[in-house]
């Protein structure tokens, strides 16, 4: 039993408060210069045969392992349906998230993330790496949001906590199932079974307020997610998420149904797959009239775990290892300092 958590991994890389506090979206009428991005290539994507949408995988398909492995390899992102989680759970998390983001700014700043912490209200962690700020506010939860919820709603915090904890439990079970399929694809011989890891997760509530100038603002700047995988729910199926596709440029993810979930490969799974699965670059556009909320659940091995590229013993001789061994904690620390340059630092 270890006590290390994601909180521990970020402790040594504090951010300045100026990079954590979002602007007051409730009072702002115009996009200030600090949030104006000069060149966003915001052209609508039309999906057709030449421009296909990301794969949609039915979790009860008998070929699920093959389909998922193939989607991880060719896209690094896919949508899942038939995951067994009822719509009502997404609705209740969305409504609690909206309840939080609708609070006056003076209330929200009471639960702002500490400069060396993970849990709480604030901008995205990647903020300091860009010269412009994002049109976004978030609330990150690792395990229980109890202390923060008590601060916001001294007499009425229980519902928020129950809903968030329950959702994380559901996401953890689903993530584990997805990881099992993916590891089975990578190593059918089960040499490294899923049982060689303990896992942890974090829930990120994302809010993208209505933006007076959506063609010159970005909800989230281009990034990859760090852990094994991310499960994303876009509430009301509002689009906004785009991925960078080699031959297509920025491509919108077309919503499929209200309960479809988007799953993307993160950096640690990229390393574990010896570079076979790309951790896909993605960004978020904003809208003039729709306040978009999304729920992102990040799932990965416990921070002391060692990640080493998997190659099955039968092709051990022929395969060149692309990355050195790295602990999750070391990786997150390097990424917190260097963002995407981290890959060149661990490449063999
Ligand atoms: C468990 C995680 C995953 C984190 C860091 C930590 C808590 C918050 C997550 C996000 C959420 C927003 C995008 C991202 C890129 C960010 O800036 O903060 C994510 C990041 C990552 O995937 O690296
Ligand atoms: O809101 C979205 O669609 C994407 C969110 C995201 O990329 C993240 O939280 O890492
Ligand atoms: Fe992301």
From TrEMBL:
UniProt keyword Isomerase, yes or no: no
Gene it is expressed from: LOC101257892
Higher taxonomy: Eukaryota, Viridiplantae, Streptophyta, Embryophyta, Tracheophyta
Name of the protein in its database record: gibberellin 3beta-dioxygenase
Domain Fe2OG dioxygenase residue range list: 198-301
Obligatory cofactor(s): L-ascorbate
Keyword Zinc-finger tagged: no
Keywords assigned: Dioxygenase, Iron, Metal-binding, Oxidoreductase, Vitamin C
Pathway: Hormone biosynthesis; Plant hormone biosynthesis; gibberellin biosynthesis
EC number annotated for this UniProt entry: 1.14.11.15
Family: Belongs to the iron/ascorbate-dependent oxidoreductase family. GA3OX subfamily.
One of the GO biological process terms: gibberellin biosynthetic process
Organism: Solanum lycopersicum
């Amino acid at each position: 039993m270890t006590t290390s958590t994601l909180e521990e991994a970020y402790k040594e890389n504090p951010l300045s408060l100026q990079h954590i506090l979002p602007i007051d979206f409730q009072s702002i009428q115009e996009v200030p210069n600090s949030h104006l991005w000069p060149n966003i290539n915001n052209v609508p994507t039309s999906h057709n045969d030449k421009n296909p949408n990301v794969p949609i995988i039915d979790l009860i398909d008998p070929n699920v392992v093959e389909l998922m492995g193939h989607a991880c390899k060719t896209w690094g992102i896919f949508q899942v349906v038939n995951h067994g989680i009822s719509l009502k759970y997404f609705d209740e998390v969305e409504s609690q998230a909206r309840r939080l983001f609708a609070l006056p700014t003076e209330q929200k700043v009471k639960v702002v993330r500490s400069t060396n912490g993970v849990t709480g209200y604030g901008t995205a962690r990647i903020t300091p790496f860009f010269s412009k700020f994002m049109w976004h506010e978030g609330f990150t939860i690792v395990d229980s949001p109890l202390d923060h919820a008590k601060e916001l709603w001294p007499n009425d915090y229980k519902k928020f906590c129950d809903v968030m904890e329950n959702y994380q439990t559901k996401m953890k079970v689903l993530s584990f199932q997805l990881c099992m399929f993916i590891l089975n694809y990578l190593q059918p011989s089960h040499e490294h079974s899923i049982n060689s890891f303990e896992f942890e997760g974090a829930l990120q509530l994302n809010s993208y307020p209505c933006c007076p100038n959506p063609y010159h603002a970005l909800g989230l700047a281009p990034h990859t997610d760090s852990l094994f995988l991310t499960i994303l729910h876009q509430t009301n199926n509002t689009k906004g998420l785009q991925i960078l596709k080699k031959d297509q440029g920025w491509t919108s993810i077309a919503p499929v149904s209200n309960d479809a979930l988007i799953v993307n490969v993160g950096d640690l799974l990229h390393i574990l797959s010896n570079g076979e699965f790309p951790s896909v670059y993605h960004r978020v556009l904003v809208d003039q009239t729709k306040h978009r909320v999304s729920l992102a659940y990040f799932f990965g091995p416990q921070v002391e775990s060692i990640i080493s590229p998997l190659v099955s013993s039968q092709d051990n001789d022929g395969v060149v290892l692309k990355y050195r061994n790295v602990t999750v904690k070391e990786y997150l620390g390097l990424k917190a300092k260097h963002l995407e340059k981290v890959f060149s630092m661990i490449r063999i």
